[in-house]
Amino acid sequence: MTPQTETPVEKPYVLVDFAAGQLKRAEPVGHNAIDGRKLTGEVELYLIVRTPLQVASGSLDVVKTAQGEEVIAQGSSIARYKAEGTAQRMPIVPGSSLKGALRSLVETLSPSCVAVSSGATRFAIPRPLGRCTRIDSLCPACRLFGMSGAGHDNYLGQVSIVDAQLIPGQGGLVLVRIPLLWAPARGRGGLPGRYLKSQVARGRKVYLPSQPAAGPDARLALKTGSVLKTSLHFENLSPAELGLVITALGLHPQHRFLPKIGAGKPVGLGSIEVAVMAVRLRGNITQTGRLGGPAVRYSGDDVLKSRFQTWAEAAIQEGLVAPQALTAVTDALKSDNLKRPPMEGVY
Would you say residue 198 lies in a domain? Predict the structure, then answer.
């Protein structure tokens, strides 16, 4: 790779059109009871790291390279867990980070509000997509993942994700060096002109996968091939809502893709493959008591594929997944794009 220049290059991304015209806000089901007509349960997941993955903890570590030099690097998130009665430090991907990445994809695929925008950029958001502020009027993403609105209106959401723990012996940390990354609109107010059409934002940004780029910024990351285990819990979802979540995980049988998470997404970091071990659905509480009956566990490739197909089709038919957005996201995040050469220069 040639030495970096001082002139920033354009980051590799696509803008996915908003589904603003299809947005329909509604009151969520709530948490006061398990609705026997809805789906409640969990999805057991493996996360397979396809390019180095870093979710920074905010700390710096002194690390020795293979050549013996000491380097100060940004650390990955670390948590303490009990293993056979002893304390153990191990790399994790926080559930909050996973939830944020999944929400971003749900917002991109569905007619949902733009929940996060600064004052300088809010003027460019299409008017129908202003963030939700009332519990009785929530977009699909806010019903699933929660909302913090004006006054006392806050909603927990119907989906939660636990911290993803590295499976012992299935990978570990590695030192990577990536190019320096800069804010796309540094020194200016609002969005750059290339993001706008008639002063309105053109769509949601999705960074393209590629081979990792090299540069001077040292990071500690989970190395390629690492495998983590986590679970996604859901409560009172319709089949279409669960289909939206499954699709956003990259698991639609006809639209598989690799979600991106963490730091360095523009320079080839953070691509993961999601694999499902099983889906558990709780029994109908109206027939089995207030705690519900034993969960029904679905596993096996054919069984899961059939379930995912049914739920994902319901999401499209009920307007929770915009077909054009799904095609655009699938094309952008498909596994073949991991072969793309990285861009050179300061990003």
Answer: yes
Backbone dihedral region for residue 319 (phi beyond 0: left; psi -120 to 50: alpha; all else: beta): left
The 3-class secondary structure across 253-265, one letter per residue, is CCEECCCECCCCH
Q: Quick one: average pLDDT of 175-195?
A: 76
Residues 11/318, Cβ–Cβ less than 8 Å: no
Q: Is residue 302 part of a domain?
A: yes
Q: Which two tokens stand for residue 91?
A: 């790399």
Q: Identify the CA nearest to 245 among candidates 147, 165, 161, 134.
A: 161
- Rounded (10°) CA dihedral 14, 104, 38, 111: -50
Q: What is the pTM of this model?
A: 0.89
285 within a domain of the structure (yes/no) = yes
For the ranges 69-73, 310-314, 315-319, the lowest mean pLDDT is seen at 69-73
Provide the domain limits for residue 56.
Answer: 13-339
What residues have CB less than 8 Å from 7, skipping those under 6 apart?
A: 345, 346
More confident residue, 312 or 150: 312
In a domain, 314, yes or no: yes
More confident residue, 149 or 40: 40
Judged against a pLDDT cut of 90, whether residue 198 lies above it is answered with no
- Nearest partner of 98 among 36, 53, 41, judged by Cα: 53
Mean predicted lDDT score pLDDT of the chain: 86
Question: Two tokens at 80?
Answer: 């303490």
**292 contacts 34 by C-beta, under 8 angstroms:** yes
Q: What are the backbone dihedrals phi and psi of residue 168, each rounded to the nearest 5 degrees, phi first?
A: -55, 130
- Given a contact cutoff of 8 angstroms between Cβ atoms, the answer to whether 140 and 48 are in contact is no
Which residue carries 């006809």 as its tokens? 254
Question: By the 8 A CB rule, do 138 and 107 touch?
Answer: no
Domain count, the chain: 1
